[in-house]
Amino acid sequence: MQFFKGAIFFLLTLGVSALPTAIESNYENLTDTDLENRGTAVNPALVPVFKIQPGSGVGANNVPIPKDCPPARAEFIQKLSANVAAGNVLGQRINFNTDIKVTDVKTQKDRATAMIITLQSFSGTKGVGCPGASTPELTELQKTGIQSPA
Length: 150
Description:
The chain is an all-alpha fold. Helices cover 45% and strands 3% of the residues. The chain has helices at 2-24, 32-37, 73-86, 105-120, 136-144, and strands spanning 88-89, 92-93. Strand 1 (88-89) and strand 2 form a beta hairpin. Helix 3 (73-86) crosses helix 4 (105-120). Keywords: Signal. Residues 1-18 form the signal peptide.
């Protein structure tokens, strides 16, 4: 009987200890609160407001863009947060400092690059998403490292 109790306790402990690893490896199912608790949620203040509206089909410099570009802000920030938590976008490493107090040029350029990579692979397939022309704010931030006021 004692052996049986010990075996059950061991199996329960083993199952519980494996649970966080399984949950954390599936970032798509994490909520914003989950990401905030891990310090990887992207503060919306770090993401420029996209001035081009979805459905226009026309991006910066009159470049044609898909009608569903750019994505909705909340959806973009959620996907960006998941990518930041993972440290990559479909295997491509990204750097995104989530500390809103850090605003040096290099950090801002790194953030812009991470956002553009996220945007360009938004559909979940590398390179299949929205072009940079759908968010000129990001391409400008990537070039200058200076975020324009909203």
